[in-house]
């Protein structure tokens, strides 16, 4: 089919591209009730995952050193409630709001099936997916600070290849108002209730500028359909941004001429606490972080060894990784594997440890990206424990 230029086009153009049937308004789609089902559907065995009930983190000790991407079966899961089972055959993405070229209310939203979306040019892109709170537990264990939220170590991250369509192609085909500024993405999972407050369905607004830049509506990961836990049949992906921006089980997009808000950009996923202003902005681009492909407290034999790890940034490429094998006294450059890097995925690196002496050691890795952003030695304290980007002190024992 003819590729659609990423311009703001009218509603009639959409009918030609997507087929008249797709544009019939539908009643609100309702997610099936899932009260008795488990929080996560895929297996999360203890040799691969650390289990946090609704969430599960990938163990860095289980990462396949030879593989670049994270297999979907190994990717961390972060659910506010539980994984819903959505029927792809009746699934429809609803589009409404006064930011469409032809404004529409929620009750008469446009409705796009997966088949409609698959008629648009297919787009593939490798990117890091990472939770805003990745590394949160180190606020406590490394900085003696108390924070709320899931006590992830560094496994709430992965690099995957997305398959889908560019959101800008979808918007061009349905027609975007020239003064649209904000898009609210809402999931089909159960409403999120916490501390007696019902926050409604998981949803978060993002700027139209990001939508027209690199946002993806993805139905696939690493060449497979999405698993239910990762957003089947369709999720939003905002590459480089905090994980919460990539809404799973995408039910609707509200396109607006005014700034939209939700608890996920006003209450959660903002910096809060004594060091932050009351109007700190919603978090967007992920910081720079690094991890060793080792368990915390790993035992290593007392002979020369090549250690490996990965570093990533939401803003650009990793240009340098410095490592210390002696708790931060001396530093040396790690060897970056630049060849295996795909698109906006992470960078693999290695370092040779020629003479490991028996006893306890702390390994440190500190990366810098091509925007000159580097990892601090102390992460900025915030009460919800976001953006722990400081260099992590990784204990190992040589035996
Ligand atoms: N609908 C919906 N989308 C969501 C979430 C959710 O709970 N519901 N969690 C968000 C958060 S906080 C993260 S970090 C990522 C995690 O994606 P994954 O579970 O596929 O790894 O999904 C985001 N999208
Ligand atoms: Mo997250």
Main attributes?
binds the ligand Nc1nc2c(c(=O)[nH]1)N[C@H]1C(S)=C(S)[C@@H](COP(=O)(O)O)O[C@H]1N2; Immunoglobulin-like; mainly beta; 24 strands; 9% helix; disordered N terminus; TAT_signal
Explain what this protein looks like in three dimensions.
This protein has 399 residues and is mostly beta strands. The protein has 2 domains: 8-266, Sulfite Oxidase, Chain A, domain 2 (Alpha-Beta Complex); 289-398, Immunoglobulin-like. 9% of the residues lie in helices and 30% in strands. The chain has 6 helices and 24 strands. The protein has helices at 11-18, 114-118, 137-141, 167-174, 208-213, 263-266; strands at 49-52, 55-58, 77-78, 93-96, 110-112, 122-130, 157-166, 182-187, 193-194, 197-198, 203-207, 216-221, 224-225, 235-237, 250-256, 288-292, 298-300, 305-313, 318-324, 332-333, 335-337, 347-353, 359-369, 394-398. The strands form 6 sheets. It has a 5-stranded mixed sheet. Strands 6, 7, 12, 13 and 14 form a 5-stranded antiparallel sheet that branches. Strands 17-24-23-19-20 form a 5-stranded mixed sheet, with no helix packed on it. The longest helix is centred in the N-terminal third of the chain and has 8 residues, at 11-18. The chain is globular and about 70 Å long. It starts with 10 loop residues before the first helix and ends with a strand. The site of the ligand Nc1nc2c(c(=O)[nH]1)N[C@H]1C(S)=C(S)[C@@H](COP(=O)(O)O)O[C@H]1N2 has 19 residues, from β3.
């Amino acid at each position: 089919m003819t590729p659609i230029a990423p311009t703001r086009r009218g509603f009639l153009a959409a009918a030609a591209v997507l087929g008249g049937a797709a544009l019939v308004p539908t009643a609100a789609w309702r997610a099936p009730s899932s009260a008795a089902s488990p929080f996560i559907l895929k297996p999360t065995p203890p040799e691969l995952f650390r289990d946090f009930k609704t969430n599960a983190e990938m163990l860095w000790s289980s990462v396949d050193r030879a593989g670049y991407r994270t297999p979907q079966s190994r990717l961390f899961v972060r659910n506010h409630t539980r994984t819903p089972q959505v029927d792809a055959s009746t699934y429809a993405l609803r589009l409404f709001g006064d930011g469409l070229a032809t404004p529409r209310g929620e009750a008469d939203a446009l409705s796009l099936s997966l088949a409609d979306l698959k008629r648009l040019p297919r787009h593939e892109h490798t990117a890091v997916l990472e939770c805003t709170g990745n590394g949160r537990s180190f606020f406590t264990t490394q900085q003696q600070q108390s924070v709320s939220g899931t006590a992830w170590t560094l496994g709430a991250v992965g690099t995957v290849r997305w398959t889908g369509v560019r959101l800008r192609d979808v918007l061009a085909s349905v027609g975007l108002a020239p003064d649209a500024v904000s898009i609210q993405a809402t999931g089909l999972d159960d409403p999120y209730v916490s501390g007696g407050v019902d926050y409604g369905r998981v949803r978060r607004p993002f700027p139209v500028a990001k939508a027209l830049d690199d946002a993806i509506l993805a139905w696939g990961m690493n060449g497979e359909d999405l698993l239910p836990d990762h957003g089947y049949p369709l999720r939003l992906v905002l590459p480089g941004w905090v994980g919460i921006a990539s809404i799973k089980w995408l039910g609707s997009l509200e396109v607006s001429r005014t700034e939209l808000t939700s608890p996920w950009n006003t209450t959660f996923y903002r910096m809060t606490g004594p060091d932050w202003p009351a109007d700190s902005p919603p978090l967007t681009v992920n910081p720079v972080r690094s991890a060793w492909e080792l368990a915390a407290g790993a035992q290593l034999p007392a002979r020369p060894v090549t250690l490996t790890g990965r570093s990533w940034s939401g803003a650009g490429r990793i240009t340098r990784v410095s490592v210390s094998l002696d708790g931060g006294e001396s530093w040396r450059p790690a060897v970056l594997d630049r060849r295996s890097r795909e698109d906006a995925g992470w960078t693999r690196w290695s370092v040779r440890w020629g003479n490991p002496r028996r006893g306890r050691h702390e390994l440190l890795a500190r990366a810098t990206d091509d925007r000159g952003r580097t990892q601090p030695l102390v992460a900025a304290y915030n009460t919800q424990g976001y953006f722990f980007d400081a260099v992590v002190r990784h204990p190992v024992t040589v035996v």
